[in-house]
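Researcher: Next entry in the queue.
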Amino acid sequence: MNKKHLEDVALTIFSNTTQKFPDSQWDRPEEWYASFSGQNMRWELIGLLFSSWALSALQNKEDIDGYRPRVLALKFFGIMESCITFCQDIKANNVLFLYLLYRTTIVSSILHGPNDPGFWPLHSETVSLARSMCLSTMSDASIQDPRILKQSERRLFTAIYILDKTAATLSGKLPLLPSDHCSTALPLDICNTILLCWRTSQGVNLASLGVNDEGWNVDGKIYSTTTLRARGLIAHIREQILDLALNRRARDLRDLIDFSPDE
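Model: Structure for this entry, 263 residues:
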């Protein structure tokens, strides 16, 4: 592949990224995925691919193609930052870019730790974009919406909320996403297979989705969303403990004795 061809590919990707992200509610998940991949490839997705490779490299203990895992992950991290810069220049503020910011923040925390000067600007931008997209205040009317985009948004926001509380705990800082300002419900505990196979013609029936009235799956299995929901509840409790620990005002001992999490 010569330089001219690479330039043409890059220009095509830039052109695709300038297009409004397809955030409409697609009836078929594969149509939604095809709208930003293949010939519609965007910089957000390229950055996400490198984030997966970076996380995979960090799990290796042996050299990869002559590179030490951490060195390779740092190279991938640099490419992720470049993809973020491209998206920022184009003002591509969408859920896919938000996911890229979140994944880059995760890789940064593993490589450098949550106290690194580079971590908090990334995390702050992630939180800021999530709030500007109103993901922190999603309508309760959409809680049972099983469409892939809506559930993906709920899953992503819950993951960002968890990271926010974890980073605050490890660094001793106040969370950037206080629960008082977040009303978005947890995502449904749906198996990915069900989520991908669901069609609008089926209607919204919690029983057919395999979840109870509280959103938990009823088949006794542990899915990725099962642990995500549980960690979301734990993060809420952690925030309440942080509030007590970081509040410098004098507190009556009874405040601590009477403290009991909602969950």
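Model: Residues 1-15+32-134 form one domain.
Researcher: Noted, moving on.
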